[in-house]
Amino acid sequence: MPDEPAPPPAGDHPAQHAPATPGEPLRVEVLSAVFQVRTAGADDTPTLCVLLRTPDGSTSPGAWRTLPGGDVGTEETLAQSAKRHIADDLDVAGLAHIEQLSVFSAPHRVPGTRTIASTYLGLLPSDADTRLPDGAAWVPIDGLDPVALPLAYDHGEIVDAARHRLAAKLSYTNIAFALAPEQFAMSELSEIYCAALGYTVDTTNLLRVLSRRAVVVATGTVRKTGRSGGRPPALYRFAESELRVTDEFATLRPPM
Amino acid sequence: MPDEPAPPPAGDHPAQHAPATPGEPLRVEVLSAVFQVRTAGADDTPTLCVLLRTPDGSTSPGAWRTLPGGDVGTEETLAQSAKRHIADDLDVAGLAHIEQLSVFSAPHRVPGTRTIASTYLGLLPSDADTRLPDGAAWVPIDGLDPVALPLAYDHGEIVDAARHRLAAKLSYTNIAFALAPEQFAMSELSEIYCAALGYTVDTTNLLRVLSRRAVVVATGTVRKTGRSGGRPPALYRFAESELRVTDEFATLRPPM
C-alpha cells in the first residue's frame, strides 16, 4: 500500500501563493441584499423591497444607507457572518433562503484599505413579520434614488445584481417559495412574481406552468374571505422549501 | 434642487464595518477549476479533465497538486487575478467561458494565516490546443485519488463544486458551447455532455431539445471523413457563444 504523502507543514504555503505585495492590508466584508415583497404606496401594491440601514442607527433623511453586513469573524464562515450581521436587524429564522452572490472586488470600491465584499441574497416570505431597529428600513427597489437616498459605495450595484439573480432564478427554479406565504391564492403568487420581475405575469399561465412542473400543489382548501360576493379562491402551496431547478432537459436527467 | 450629501471621507468607514478583530491578518486567494473534455484511456474515451499543477513545477509523483491560482494583486479585480494565474499555465485566449463559483471560507481551511478562497470555473473547447509547463497536467476528474494524487487543502471540494455547477448549467443554459469545438457532429456533442455529466445522453433526444430551443443550429455542411462506409455526419454549431438561460418559462418572459 503506498504511503500517504505528509501534508505540508502549517504555514508553509506553496510558492505560487506568496502574496503579490506581502503585508498589503486587506479587508473582507460580507454584505447581504435581503428582499421581501411588501405592500407599499397609497393602493397597497405588492412591491419588492430591500433592507437598508444607516451605519449608526441615524434616522436623518440625508444619512447614507448600507446593506446589512460587516467584517467576517475569526471563527466563522462567510455565510455564518452574513447571518450574524442580518440578525442585528431581523430574526434570521424568518429567512426562507440565502445564497451567495458574486464577489465585488474593484480595487478602490471602498476608499482606504482594500476591501473585498462577498455578497449574499436573502429572501423573506411576504407574510413574515419584521420589526426593525432604528435606522433600518424596507425600501422599494424601484424607488432607490441616489439623491434622496444615497447608498454607500457600490451597494446599489449589489442590489441590482441581487435583483437580476432573483429574476433569473424565478424563471428556472422554485425560488418563489422563499417570497410567498405558506399558503396563497394564485392571484397573490402572481402579484409576488410581478413585484420581483417588474412586469405583469398572467395568473392562469403561471398556474398552468407551475402545476405541470409540480412546483405548486393545491391544498384542497379555499380562502375564507370576509369580502362578500365572488367565489372564494382555491389555495396552493409550494411542494418544496429547498431550491431546485424545475426545468431540466428530460434528456439530461440522470438514469434512474 | 436638494444638495447631494457629501460622500464619507476616505477611510471613514461606517461603524458597522469596523473589523471584528482589528488587525487580524487575512489573505484572499483566487483558485480556478479549469475543465476540458479530452480523450483519455486506452480507447480514447472523451473524459472531463481538470487542470492541476504542482506549486514548484515538480514532476515527482507524490507531489501535492493545486488548482491554478494565488493572491490577488493590488490593482486587479478577482476575475483579472484568476485569468492572470491561469495564464501561467495556459493561453487564456482559449478560455471560452469563466464564471465565479462560491467562496470557500472555513476558518482553518489553510493552516496559518486565515485564507479565504474566491473560486472560478473556466471552460476550454475540446479542440483547444494546450501546451502545459512542467508540473501542470490535465487529470481526469473521475480519476482523482487522494492517495495517488493528493490535492492541497480543500481543492478537491472546489473541483466537486465546479463539476456540480457545470452539470446544473448544462441542464438549463447553453454552457456546452464552451466545451464543444466550433463545429461538431451531434454524436460528438453527445459525448461531451456524457463526459461532463457522468452518464450517457441520447443523441437523438439531445438534438431534438437543443434544436427546439435554438441552442444549436445546422451549419448545412457535413463532415468530410477519411473513414469508408456510412453517411458523413451533418455538422452543427452553437447559435451563441455567450451564456444564456435556454429555458425560461414562457409566462415569465418580459413583455416585448
Overall 3D geometry of chain A? globular
CATH architecture verdict of the largest domain in chain A = Alpha-Beta Complex
Number of helices of chain A: 4
Strand segment count of chain A: 8
Count of distinct structural domains of chain A: 2
The H-and-E topology of chain A, N to C, reads as EEEHEEEHHHEE
Indicate the multimeric state. Answer: homodimer
> Helical proportion of chain A?
10-25%
Radius of gyration of chain A: 22 Å
Strand fraction of chain A: 15-25%
CATH superfamily of the largest domain in chain A: Nucleoside Triphosphate Pyrophosphohydrolase
The main pleated sheet of chain A reads as:
6 strands, mixed
The pair of chains with the biggest contact is: A-B, 84 and 84 residues
- Please identify the structural class of chain A as seen in this structure: alpha+beta
CATH domain topology of the largest domain in chain A: Nucleoside Triphosphate Pyrophosphohydrolase
Query: Roughly what is the average pLDDT of chain A, rounded to an integer?
Result: 86
Low-pLDDT windows of residues of chain A: 1-21
User: Separation of termini of chain A?
Assistant: 36 Å
Region (Disordered) (chains A, B): 1-22
Domain NrtR DNA-binding winged helix (chains A, B): 176-238
Organism (chains A, B): Gordonia amarae NBRC 15530
Biased composition (Pro residues) (chains A, B): 1-11
